[in-house]
Amino acid sequence: MSLDAHLVVSRAAFTLDVALRAEPGEVVALLGPNGAGKTTALRALAGLEPLSGGHVRLSGRDLTRVPPEKRGVGVVFQDYLLFSHLSALDNVAFGPRRRGRTRAEARGIAAAWLDRVGLAAFAERKPRKLSGGQQQRVALARALAVEPELLLLDEPLAALDARTRLDTRAELHEHLAKHTGATLLITHDPLDALMLADRLVIVEDGRIVQEGDAAEVTARPRTDYIARLVGLNLYRGRGDGRTVAVGDLVLHVADEVSGESYAAFPPSAVTLHPARPDGSARNAWPARVAGVQRHGDNLRVRLDGPVELAADVTPAAAAHLRLSPGQEVWAAVKAAQVRAYRY
Amino acid sequence: MGLLVPALAGLLFLVLPLVGLVVRAPWSTMPARLAEPAVLDALWLSVRTATMATAVCLVLGVPLAWLLARADFPGRRVVRALVTVPLVLPPVVGGVALLLVFGRRGLIGEWLDSAFGITLPFTTAGVVLAEAFVAMPFLVIAVEGALRGADTRYEEAAATLGAGRWTTFTRVTLPLVAPGVAAGGVLCWARALGEFGATITFAGNFPGRTQTMPLAVYLALETDVQAAIVLSLLLLAVSVTILAALRDKWVSG
Fold first, then answer.
1. Domain containing A243: what range?
2. Half-sphere exposure of residue A89, counting CA atoms within 13 Å on the CB side?
3. How far B141 CA lies from chain A's nearest CA (Å)?
4. Which of residues A191, A225, A259 is at a domain's end?
5. What are A284-294's pLDDT values in tens digits?
6. Over the stretch A113-139, which tens digit does the pLDDT of each residue have?
7. Chain A: nearest CA to B163, how far in angstroms?
8. Where do the coiled-coil regions begin and end (chain B) (predicted)?
9. What is the ipTM of this complex?
10. Number of domains in chain A
């Protein structure tokens, strides 16, 4: 029940070209900004979008030219697409019924699935009489009731409010852990990806820019998008020993590198000063405040200068510096806080 | 104010003739007149033929609407234009056209007669045919609109669950557009109930067989104006009642 796919979809202004693999029982998150081609990839795997090239293989079976109704791929759509004229039970029974079960058998399977997602008491309700979280669970039960070899989830939590999201995410995690087939989860929310997936595949502009488990991706981001997602300042430059030259700025770093390298540090590692600091920080440069925003209990300061920079400061420090847009300050980062790795 | 005056005038213009019917109705003799067998025959025939014509339109019109809304084929615009022709065609012309095709000497009628012994003109079946011809565009246009407005992603969801084209259409698409189909059916039925020109041309005016209410009204007008008023009021009451009932049940729900 492993997935092996190479998806190529060419459109006038956009090309998707990604290779995806998922082992049985593995949850892979396809993470990327809006318009990266995530949903196109999902539709191509489900057979709803024709491929311009590449292949889709599931458990060794070639599905490239197989129509969606014969693929054995379950899909949880972003807005669920529950059939509004059918009860929750009949929605879940729809798949088993189409796959040759009798009406009674299909309803039995559906009842068992609704029980598993904790909705046994709501079986006869129409979708519009269910809350968002309940609809999401019906959609999940409907997709799983056909025992798909591959389960696809398109932003399964995006339509929920923050509170419901937390509970639903935990439940979803449980159900995905029990699913024996491969699972591909599409999301633009890094938290969903980190909590639900075993492996992250990050897509930008129709291409994979980075793959790996959560620890790898968060420690060593490879694009600005990922760095922003995980909240790091990320620069590309030329490494030489324990320095990385980013334009005119030479950063002292904690790791030994040479050649094209990344340097990364969190906004909390940055300190701001009214004048050149004389402390232990090896990296210091003049910068100009571009904007100040609330960020949790602190303030996040955006700065221009030799490099664009985000710094987190306490409200007290901000008051002391009288931070306001356009103001000139000095930014400092200790070399020990700057990670460097090869490009 | 500039719009209110013509708006009220327009409303008055639409309502006043109906008021006239009510005011001039022979209310004292109404129960006796309504109980006349000829009146009941005409009413029963009208309701029956309009319902059968609607059934014919549903069976043929829904697939046609689906074809226009979903299939991509060359000449689709031409087909759509052809479908709407009966809308703009004077019904009498439609009746003449039907005679030329389904009449005893018609293109198909002659063959139907010799091969199966079926004659359509001047029969109750002919009434149904004439009404269906005139009313079907209403159904097709309403259902096509509903299909175009329907979210096709529900059909995709059905496909991922293993449903083929036909199952998807009957189990997902049709329920999805049911309000549109119902609205189209109601329009179609109302048009069929009031049909006059094509019916009298193609099916004639035989009491009990092809004389529907509008035909009876027209005939009565020449001999007994009071009877014509009674028949008109009855037709009005029946159509308004049924439309209102169906509207509550389907269209707004």
1. 231-342
2. 16
3. 23
4. A225
5. 999 999 989 88
6. 999 999 999 999 999 999 999 999 999
7. 6
8. none
9. 0.79
10. 2
